[in-house]
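stage 2 :: seqdesign
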């Protein structure tokens, strides 16, 4: 009887999902102009921009997608007029594989391609939230503060606008949540039965360097070196397989683009797509006080140093002794190490658009599982909710807002969750360790 009820439940969920997807398609077909070109001015949705380039790569001839000439030719061919402006590509060649089916559908209908992409992204996120939520309710560990903050993120205007422009941060958030769930459920086992799903998750996270770095970092922190190695090796094999089609020059072109993101030397052709005032990061928040070059340098040093220090520490711990949930010297839980690498990205990455703040839902999931928070009616909880709401909606304030205040607010939130995830035996007794 239980199996029949579950089958009926999933059947209803699938039916509702398909119905919502169809309604969404009909809505956006009439409401969204994916590409608009008038009097030499080009307005293009983020998702459409990337899909046009990937479609051109697969179906109009291979080439180095990171070269400006390739992007201009692809856009000009799609629009039917010469296009000289462009956006720098932060995606890796892995996106050519991940987005191939969506690019194929875009040959027929861009709105349908976008609908399927959004359905896929939201589906991944919601199933991850469902898994973690069910696990938490099963163990009767209800932390109302992270649950409330998670609702604020999911139903925020930032999330809806990320959907509107087809941002990758929604999918990345869901994939990181799935990875976290795999990790704390299986890391105590000598061999994980989730090896293939983990490799697939890491492959998709490989669409952007920060995503795959965070994904591999989570695996390493949980001591899942085998899964991390196989996943990284598979991604490398895919990159090698794509290189003949891209030409070997893609490596140099892509590194140049990453350097542009890191050091701030933005060519005029890309200038219109760079909007620092929308980025709640150290560089944007403090460049008016210490200069952009110094802010960029500090951001790079802190972001890379924190990540490498955490990975190096995990490696040393693996060599010296079995890495337990709490380390006696520094008294850091695995959950805190994960929060550390995610926070270093959200706070100190040299270039992160405002929609990447949606990744904070991964931090909230860690807090929900491992954290120990005060009641929701506590004054500190209420203050944190207000601050969090402001942070997640900082892009809806005037462009000349004091961004450093929002950066401090975000640092306070992440620091509070970090402190709340201290190791405690009660979680282990309740079965929340794995």
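stage 2 :: out
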């Amino acid at each position: 009887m239980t199996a029949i009820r579950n089958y009926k439940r999933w059947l209803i969920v699938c039916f509702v999902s398909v119905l919502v997807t169809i309604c969404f398609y009909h809505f956006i077909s009439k409401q969204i102009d994916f590409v608009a070109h008038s009097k030499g001015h080009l307005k293009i949705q983020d998702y459409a921009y990337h899909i046009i380039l990937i479609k051109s790569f697969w179906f109009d001839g291979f080439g180095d997608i990171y070269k400006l000439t390739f992007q201009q030719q692809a856009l000009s061919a799609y629009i039917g007029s010469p296009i000289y402006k462009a956006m720098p590509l932060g995606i890796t060649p892995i996106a050519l594989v991940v987005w191939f089916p969506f690019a194929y559908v875009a040959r027929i209908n861009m709105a349908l391609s976008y609908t399927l992409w959004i359905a896929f992204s939201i589906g991944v996120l919601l199933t991850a939230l469902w898994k973690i939520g069910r696990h938490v309710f099963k163990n009767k560990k209800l932390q109302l503060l992270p649950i409330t903050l998670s609702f604020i993120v999911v139903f925020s205007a930032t999330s809806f606008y990320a959907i509107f422009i087809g941002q990758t941060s929604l999918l990345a958030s869901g994939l990181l949540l799935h990875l976290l769930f795999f990790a704390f459920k299986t890391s105590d086992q000598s061999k994980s039965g989730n090896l293939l799903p983990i490799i697939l998750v890491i492959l998709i996270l490989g669409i952007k360097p920060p995503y795959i770095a965070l994904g591999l970092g989570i695996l390493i922190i949980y001591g899942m070196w085998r899964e991390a190695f196989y996943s990284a090796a598979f991604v490398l094999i895919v990159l090698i397989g794509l290189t003949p089609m891209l030409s070997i020059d893609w490596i140099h072109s892509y590194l140049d683009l990453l350097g542009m993101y890191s050091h701030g030397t933005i060519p005029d052709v890309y200038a219109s797509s760079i909007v620092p005032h929308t980025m709640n990061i150290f560089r944007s928040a403090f460049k008016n006080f210490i200069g952009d070059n110094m802010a960029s340098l500090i951001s790079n040093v802190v972001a890379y140093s924190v990540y490498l220090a955490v990975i190096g520490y995990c490696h040393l711990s693996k060599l010296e002794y079995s890495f337990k949930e709490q380390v006696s010297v520094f008294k850091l839980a695995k959950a805190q190490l994960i929060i550390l690498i995610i926070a270093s990205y959200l706070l100190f990455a040299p270039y992160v658009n405002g929609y990447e703040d949606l990744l904070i839902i991964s931090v909230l999931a860690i807090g929900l599982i491992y954290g120990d928070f005060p009641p929701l009616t506590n004054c500190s909880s209420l203050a944190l909710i207000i601050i969090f709401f402001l942070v997640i909606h900082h892009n809806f304030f005037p462009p000349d807002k004091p961004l450093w205040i929002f950066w401090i607010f975000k640092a306070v939130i992440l620091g509070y969750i970090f402190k709340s995830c201290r190791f405690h035996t009660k979680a282990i007794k309740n079965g929340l360790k794995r």
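stage 3 :: structure notes
- The first helix runs from residue 2 to 31.
- The first strand starts at residue 35 and ends at 38.
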